[in-house]
């Protein structure tokens, strides 16, 4: 199966370098998606540009792909299900949840010179980064790509309620499946509260399992692929 891989903020497709060969070994075709403004040098990219890149990858996929979003990009994966409910076989959400219609995409940190730079590790101390060593932290920060303001402040627009029929896997790294279920039941994740088919999977990692547990994440994703 084609498995589209969408990295979160500040990351490009190379974030999946450890996951790709492991998925290939398991018989799948992984496709890391290069997001405008996060890997192609376009500082003026918008959220619409990123959505268009994801949809282009969906349209180019063989058969019906599984779309994997990490962190903020969980919203991009969900937007793909909204725009192509008949084409997306499943959505996997790694360490995040989709934003609701009308909400900003990722206005989490202050902008500088028209972009949102990586804010350093202070906001991520604790379970998020506990499994990242000093070298991995330095490499991440050095490679981090500031997210264009047009992406970070873009407004999420969801239109097709058929998205709720697309099966969802919530991959739980720095939080547990029990916590995820509680947040959904409490109304904190309205999109998933309406989804008809939601499964949960735990992985023993921090917020970036593609870096710290690539083989384990690949096995988990491969096991979750729907039957062709």
TrEMBL record:
Pfam families linked: Abhydrolase_6
Domain AB hydrolase-1: 3-219
Domain of life of the source: Bacteria
GO MF annotation, one: catalytic activity
Coiled coil regions, renumbered to chain: none
SUPFAM superfamilies: alpha/beta-Hydrolases (SSF53474)
Annotated protein name in UniProt: Esterase
């Amino acid at each position: 199966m084609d498995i589209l891989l969408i990295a979160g903020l500040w990351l490009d497709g190379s974030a999946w370098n450890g996951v790709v060969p492991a998925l290939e070994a398991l018989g799948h075709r992984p496709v890391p998606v290069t997001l405008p403004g996060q890997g192609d040098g376009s500082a003026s990219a918008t959220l619409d540009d990123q959505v268009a890149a994801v949809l282009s990858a969906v349209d180019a996929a063989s058969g019906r792909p599984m779309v994997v979003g990490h962190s903020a990009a969980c919203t991009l994966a969900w937007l793909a299900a909204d725009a192509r409910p008949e084409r997306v076989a499943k959505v996997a959400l790694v360490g995040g949840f989709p934003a609701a219609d009308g909400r900003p995409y990722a206005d989490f940190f202050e902008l500088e010179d028209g972009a949102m730079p990586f804010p350093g590790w202070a906001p991520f101390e604790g379970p998020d980064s506990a499994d990242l060593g000093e070298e991995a932290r330095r490499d991440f920060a050095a490679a981090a790509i500031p997210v264009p303001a047009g992406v970070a402040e873009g407004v999420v627009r969801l239109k097709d309620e058929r998205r709720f029929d697309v099966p969802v896997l919530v991959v739980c790294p720095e939080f547990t499946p029990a916590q995820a279920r509680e947040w959904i039941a409490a109304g904190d994740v309205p999109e998933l509260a309406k989804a008809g088919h939601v499964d949960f999977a735990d992985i023993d990692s921090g917020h970036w399992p593609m870096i710290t547990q690539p083989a384990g994440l690949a096995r988990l994703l491969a096991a979750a692929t729907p039957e062709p």
